[in-house]
Specification:
The chain is mostly beta strands and about 725 residues long. Among the domains are: about 5-55, no CATH class; about 75-220, Jelly Rolls (Sandwich), CATH 2.60.120; about 345-385 and about 450-490 and about 680-715; about 495-675, no CATH class. It has nine helices and 40 strands. The chain has a ten-stranded antiparallel sheet with strand order 32-31-28-37-33-34-35-30-29-36. Strands 5, 7, 10, 13, 15 and 16 form a six-stranded antiparallel sheet that branches. Strands 6, 8, 9, 11, 12 and 14 form a six-stranded antiparallel sheet that branches. It is elongated and about 125 Å long. The N and C termini lie far apart (about 90 Å).
């Protein structure tokens, strides 16, 4: 290295393969032992490259640089007679050492670990070979009060102890002879080595004295690196400048282009205050090597600042809704979510759901098979993973109003809103905030792995492929589609509805309208002369009028609210016209003025994917989520809150409560309780089923290997005995 050194380059990885990045990026000077003596280069600036650091240094005007060997040679005597360990026990106080030999000038006058006492040795280089530390001699306690106590002498590296001795003075007053030593192969610039003495108890000020031959010594062998052959780059004897197609470094740059917006903050001297603090305040600091385009190009700003989204309606399927893609943010027409669904759903039988859900059907479920491979299948056990979870149902009103719709009676007393009685059936109302649309009714529900496998993987409008195990023996003229869409997995259809109100009642028995918050309602009055009736089946198995009743809380409301509080579901099906012909006719024959049809205004159109937005409402089915009867001045008025709003024929939400009349030539209704899930599982479909025997279905987008081996899998692991 010649006179006029301005830059020093140091590799991040040393010859032993150790990455010294953390150390090299924080140093503030470099010491090089030349043959003419050690030279300290103060670092003015640091540039980091992928594999090395380049240091811009202050020029010391040295003459030659002829070796890169580092040897540590330091020795000192310990002559301090009175050491005061008043800083406490264990570490005690630092011992003063007097330098005799110090080839690298690393002697430290003030020890930062005990600034009021002692000194030490600061290592200002990165060690290339092992360093040996040794101190030995004799020590005595001259304070008579401490002759019966234990004392320590320690060799330290920074705040850590490398070696230590503990002793108690002898009764004859002879000094204690000691030796402390340590050998280190990995040290860092800035490490401080020092000696301390102290009293274990530290109950008083103790004084120590050392013998004259006590010393502290640091030594090492020369750290000589391996011989490395120097190879010129590039090594060509031809005109390499013209070989443009084989120059890997062509157009490479050593440093990044500096931007115009932001300044570089230099923390080379520490992490608390930048070295160029004043320049930054004056806006004259060196500009940062950050492209301005990082803050303007869409490809940079969108993922970092603006954000993106990826949405879809279905798994494994790219979807559209109207003129705009509902599958947003995906690549081309690829689906947002693509997964393999290794589940086979077996059913015991299939049947129709008319009249409760006109023209559609459902399956009584059996096994669910989790297929890992064609030869590795397990049953999803309904009792596995069984636990209780809370379900929350929103209500469009205040707590006091909600209490009227979902009241609980416990031990003969009505439970107030927000109160959960001990051992009471059902759950109390919970919520937060004030005003409408912030309160919920919570119900405990038993769930298991079977529940999650059925309900989480089969949302409404999921497309499925259906297979009957033996359609020839399923029944007379069985009806079962090869493909269909899921209606719901939450409930099943009852064998018979509970109550009915025909269109031809001579009185307007009630109204169908809307409440606030996007909820509908059905309002019946038990004070009119013509009652509704219970539903029965005649000798032919057809629906007919049964016992006439008035719709009051005692006759209907109490039954429904208790059932709802027990996590059961109730629905109404609304028809444009509904009659029992002569109180005996069938529900699906021609009626007085026409065929049976659902009142489905606003729900009878398809989206861009060919799906109904609310398939249940398309069939005139609305869920009851609460009922009340405390109206004044008509206490017989019974109101049912519905989960879905009611629409005018043009699809606009009803503005008033009297838009639709029930009875008196108006609408007809069925009121029915669904078959509960978790007791017997059902899957309802958006297709007709009739007389369907055992079979199975899979997600339409299940992997082909499962489809190809479906019958073999169900024969070996399922219920397929054909």
């Amino acid at each position: 290295m010649a006179e006029g050194v301005r830059y020093i380059k140091i590799s991040k990885i040393d010859k032993n393969g150790v990455d010294n990045t953390n150390t090299l990026q924080s140093i503030n000077q470099i010491t090089i032992p030349y043959s003419t003596g050690n030279v300290v280069y103060k670092i003015l600036n640091i540039s980091e490259e992928p594999t090395f650091f380049t240091y811009y240094v202050e020029n010391p005007n040295i003459e030659w640089a002829d070796r890169a060997d580092i040897e540590y040679d330091f020795s000192s005597s310990i002559s301090q007679a009175n050491v005061n360990p008043s800083l406490g026990s264990n570490n005690g106080a630092a011992v003063d050492i007097t330098s005799i030999t110090d080839n690298l000038n690393f002697y430290l006058e003030t020890n930062p670990y005990t600034p009021n006492f002692g000194n030490g040795y600061r290592l200002n280089t990165y060690s290339q070979k092992g360093i040996y530390f040794n101190t030995s001699g004799s020590i005595n306690v001259i304070d008579g009060g401490a002759q019966t106590q234990f004392h320590t002498i320690k060799l330290h590296q920074n705040a850590d102890t490398l070696d230590s001795k503990t002793w108690k003075p002898s009764v004859d007053g002879n000094p204690y002879t000691f030796e402390l030593s340590s050998s280190l192969s990995n040290t860092s610039p800035g490490d401080i080595f020092w000696i301390s003495v102290g009293n274990v108890v530290a109950s008083s000020v103790i004084q120590f004295t050392f013998s004259g031959d006590t010393f502290f010594q640091i030594t090492s062998s020369n750290a000589v690196g391996p011989s490395i052959e120097t190879i010129p780059e590039p090594y060509f004897d031809g005109n390499f400048a013209r070989s443009l197609d084989c120059q890997p470094t062509l157009n490479n740059v050593i440093s990044n282009r500096r931007g115009n917006l932001y300044q570089d903050v230099d923390y080379n001297s520490g992490i608390s205050t930048p070295t160029n603090y004043t320049l930054i305040l004056n806006n004259t600091a060196l500009k940062a090597e950050v492209p301005d385009s990082n803050y303007t190009l869409t490809r940079n700003t969108r993922p970092r600042y603006e954000g993106t989204k990826n949405t879809t309606q279905k798994i494994n399927t790219w979807t559209r809704n109207g003129s705009w893609g509902s599958n947003e943010g995906s690549y081309g027409k690829e689906p947002s979510i693509s997964v393999d669904i290794p589940l086979i759903y077996e059913f015991e039988f299939g049947s129709g759901t008319t009249p409760e859900i006109l023209g559609w059907g459902g399956f009584k479920m059996g096994k669910i098979l989790n297929v890992q491979t064609a030869d590795s299948v397990r049953d999803v056990d309904p009792s596995e993973g069984l636990k209780l979870q809370q379900q929350f149902f929103p209500f469009p009103s205040s707590l006091s109003t909600i209490a009227a719709y979902r009241k609980i009676v416990y031990n003969g007393a009505e439970v107030n809103a927000g109160v959960s009685p001990n051992n009471a059936t059902g759950s109390a109302i919970t919520g937060s905030g004030t005003g409408d649309n912030v309160h919920f009714w919570s119900i405990s529900q038993s769930v298991s792995d079977y529940y999650y496998s059925l309900n989480n993987n089969l949302p409404t409008n999921t497309e499925i492929s259906i297979t009957q195990y033996n359609p020839n023996t399923a029944g007379s003229s069985p009806t079962s589609p090869q493909t269909s869409k899921i209606l719901t997995t939450k409930f099943g259809i009852p064998s018979i509805s509970n109550y009915a109100l025909t269109s031809s009642n001579s009185y307007s028995y009630g109204v169908l309208g809307n409440s606030g918050g996007g909820f509908g309602f059905l309002q019946l009055t038990g004070s009119v002369a013509t009652p509704i009736s219970r539903v029965i089946k005649d000798s032919n198995g057809n629906y007919a009028s049964g016992e006439p009743i008035r719709a009051t809380f005692d006759t209907i409301g109490d039954e429904i609210v208790k059932s709802l509080n027990n996590n059961e579901k109730w629905f109404i099906t609304v028809y444009n016209e509904f009659e029992f012909i002569g109180n005996k006719g069938t529900y699906d024959n021609a009626l007085t003025t026409g065929s049976l049809s659902p009142m489905n205004n606003g729900y009878n159109t398809l989206d861009g994917n060919g799906d109904y937005l609310n398939p249940l409402a398309y069939k005139g089915v609305y869920e009851i989520i609460g009922t009340r009867t405390d109206f004044t001045p008509n206490p017989d008025l019974q109101q049912f809150i519905l989960s879905t709003p009611i629409y005018k024929p043009d699809g606009i939400t009803l503005a008033g409560a009297s838009e639709y009349q029930v009875g008196d030539g108006g609408l007809g209704i069925l009121i029915w309780k669904a078959q509960s899930s978790n007791k017997s599982e059902y899957v309802l479909l958006q297709d007709s089923l009739n007389g369907t025997g055992k079979g199975c279905f899979v997600n339409k987008f299940t992997t082909q290997i499962i489809k190809d081996n479906l019958l073999n899998i169900t024969k070996e692991f399922g219920s397929n005995k054909v």
